[in-house]
Design a protein that fits this description.
This protein is an alpha/beta fold. The protein has a single domain (about 15-355), classed as Glycosidases (TIM Barrel, Alpha-Beta Barrel), CATH 3.20.20.80. About 35% of the residues lie in helices and about 15% in strands. The strands form 2 sheets. An 8-stranded parallel barrel has the order 1-2-5-7-8-9-10-11, surrounded by 4 helices. The protein has a 3-stranded mixed beta sheet with strand order 4-3-6. Helix 1 (about 15-25) packs across helix 6 (about 245-265), helix 4 (about 150-170) packs parallel to helix 5 (about 190-205) and helix 7 (about 300-315) packs parallel to helix 8. The chain is globular, with a radius of gyration of 19 Å.
Length: about 350
């Protein structure tokens, strides 16, 4: 996640409702049924929404293979979730090379395959969302990853393709797969991305998306090769001089949803929020990506932000759901930032997902 380069993306042209109908028919992983009657094309019937929660890690993901993952998934299901996601890591170096353990399909990593098995045993679907770990590198965040020489770029693409297709092969039983997360400065290499996507499709039948940052999703040139538009949904909802209130947060979501509906129709793809979360911060509506945490007096702001986000998603047919950020395996389900497994937020989630 990152801060803004702009407040709102450029206005997008209107698209005929028939294009929306097409978008609703092509993505089985999002459970879209046939479109509504042409007499009411703006109100298609929705299938099962994506109500997902990200299970993060206190390590490098090894805790996803441990026994406490099972009660963790049970607890997540108890708040109304029907999807979970994990984010396997590879490290990135300044020279373009990646650091990751070799992936042997005959002896697949348990921290990837066990969560798939345990999620399915509980009736949950699972998304695999690989992340590049940039800490310890010269890159300030994933969106800054870029290289100066052709040799470095070639090294990066060779390693990245090997890593991502290896993960896709061992997680072929997952219900969806993300081919990349927040790699803003790489998307101009369209041919290489299309090659990566083709390689993933050869190894997995899971529907695919890419997790674009909130202010750059319109810059991705290869949505047509994927099954859904994925967005890291850290949209600023209020202005710097605007009073923060339930009504101002709701109005912010209305503005963004209008743009997203147009973009979904233009791309003929539904949208899924591959990440959505709010820190306990008075600035959460203005800078949702910021990990600076305020005291307990900011908890009400966090709760309102999440509640209004879930309401907005429920009210916009082109956005089929979200993966909330972030929950950890037991016994330490609550992390330092973006705390999701608190009693207060569990109640917000449960009220939203069980009441609709």
């Amino acid at each position: 996640m990152r801060g803004p380069t702009q407040q709102l993306s450029p206005e997008l042209p209107g698209i005929a409702p028939a294009a929306v109908c097409l978008a609703l028919l092509i993505v089985p992983w999002l459970s879209w049924p046939a479109c509504a009657e042409e007499t009411d094309p703006a109100a298609p019937a929705r299938g099962e929404p994506v109500r997902g929660i990200t299970v993060s890690t206190h390590t490098d993901g090894r805790d996803w293979a441990d026994d406490p993952m099972v009660p963790t998934l049970q607890e997540i299901k108890s708040v109304g979730a029907n999807w979970v996601t994990i984010h396997p890591y590879a490290g990135i170096r300044a020279d373009g090379s990646l650091r990751f353990r070799p992936i042997d399909p005959d002896h697949p990593p348990q921290h990837v395959v066990r969560p798939i098995r345990e999620a399915h045993a509980l009736g949950l679907k699972i998304l695999i969302k690989p992340h590049l770990a940039y800490w310890g590198s010269p890159f300030a965040w994933r969106g800054a990853i870029a290289f100066e020489t052709a040799e470095q770029w070639e090294r990066f693409w060779t390693d990245y393709e090997r890593w991502i297709t290896g993960l896709a092969r061992v997680s072929a039983h997952a219900d969806a797969f993300v081919v990349g997360t927040e790699l803003d400065r790489t998307v101009g290499h369209e041919a290489r991305w299309r090659r990566v996507i083709a390689g993933v499709r050869e190894r997995s039948g899971a529907p695919l998306t890419y997790a674009a940052n909130w202010d750059s999703f319109h810059e991705v040139p290869f949505w047509d090769a994927l099954d859904a538009v994925g967005i890291q949904a850290y949209f600023p909802l209020t202005g710097a001089d605007e009073a923060i209130s339930e009504s101002s947060i709701r109005a912010g979501w209305q503005r963004w949803m209008q743009q997203l509906a147009r973009f979904s129709a233009e791309q003929q793809r539904p949208i899924v929020f591959t990440e959505l979360g709010y820190n306990r911060s008075h600035a959460a509506p203005l800078r949702p990506w910021d990990d600076r945490t305020d005291g307990d007096d900011a908890r009400a702001v966090q709760e309102v932000c999440l509640r209004e986000a879930l309401l907005a998603i429920d009210g916009e047919p082109s956005v089929v759901g979200a993966f909330l950020w972030k929950w950890f395996p037991r016994p330490h389900s609550i992390g330092r930032t973006f705390q999701l497994a608190t009693p207060q937020l569990k109640r917000v989630i449960r009220d939203a997902w069980f009441e609709r």
